[in-house]
């Protein structure tokens, strides 16, 4: 069905939200702002980290930088979601490709992939170092489509948030919403799955 699978990373391939949330909670305290895990998580899932800065009228670049420092100090060790290695391997075994499009820095993404022996299953990781506009802007996806000569009709974007799905739409490719928590009900994706295993049917 699809030949190339472009994955979001945080909340899609890896369960990194606990340390991301903690990072923003600690960063907000520097501004004497007391939020809650639930509130920060809800904003991150429904919108993005930029929305946190907007909510509290803070500079996003500065807030994000502070949050990253705290995140890197976190004792939490993120793991991939159940079935991640199986589905990535399933795709590669059928001579198809995996790519990652994330707001996480490439070195961090690669380190987590290598920790679980997943790095060799991914062709390219696009991160903030590429200096593309943030999702849902389609520039980063358009880069991958052009760079690898991908057929838009055979390429799909997979993510756990509206901005991932909208990025796919804006680039003219299909989208799969990874809805493992049943938290967001109004995501207008082409397809919806609740587990990694279900993605094999799109290969």
From TrEMBL:
GO molecular function, one term: phosphoglycolate phosphatase activity
SUPFAM superfamilies: HAD-like
GO CC field: cytosol
Pfam annotation, one family: HAD_2
Gene3D superfamilies: HAD superfamily/HAD-like, Putative phosphatase, domain 2
Record GO biological process: DNA repair
Protein name as annotated: Phosphoglycolate phosphatase
């Amino acid at each position: 069905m699809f030949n190339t699978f472009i994955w979001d990373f945080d909340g899609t391939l890896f369960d990194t939200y606990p340390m991301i949330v903690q990072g923003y909670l600690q960063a907000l305290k520097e501004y004497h702002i007391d939020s809650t895990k639930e509130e920060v998580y809800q904003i991150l899932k429904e919108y993005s980290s930029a929305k946190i800065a907007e909510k509290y009228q803070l500079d996003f670049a500065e807030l994000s930088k502070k949050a990253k420092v705290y995140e890197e100090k976190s004792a939490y060790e993120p793991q991939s979601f159940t079935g991640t290695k199986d589905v990535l391997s399933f795709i590669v075994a059928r001579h198809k490709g995996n790519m990652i499009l994330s707001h996480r820095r490439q070195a961090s993404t690669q380190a987590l992939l290598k920790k679980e022996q997943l790095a060799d299953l991914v062709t390219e990781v696009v991160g903030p170092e590429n200096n593309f506009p943030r999702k849902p802007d389609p520039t980063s996806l358009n880069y991958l489509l052009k760079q690898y000569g991908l057929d838009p009709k055979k390429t799909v974007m997979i993510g756990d948030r509206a901005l991932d799905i909208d990025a796919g739409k804006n680039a003219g490719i299909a989208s799969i919403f990874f809805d493992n928590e049943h938290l967001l009900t109004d995501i207008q994706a082409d397809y919806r799955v609740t587990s990694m295993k279900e993605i094999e049917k799109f290969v």
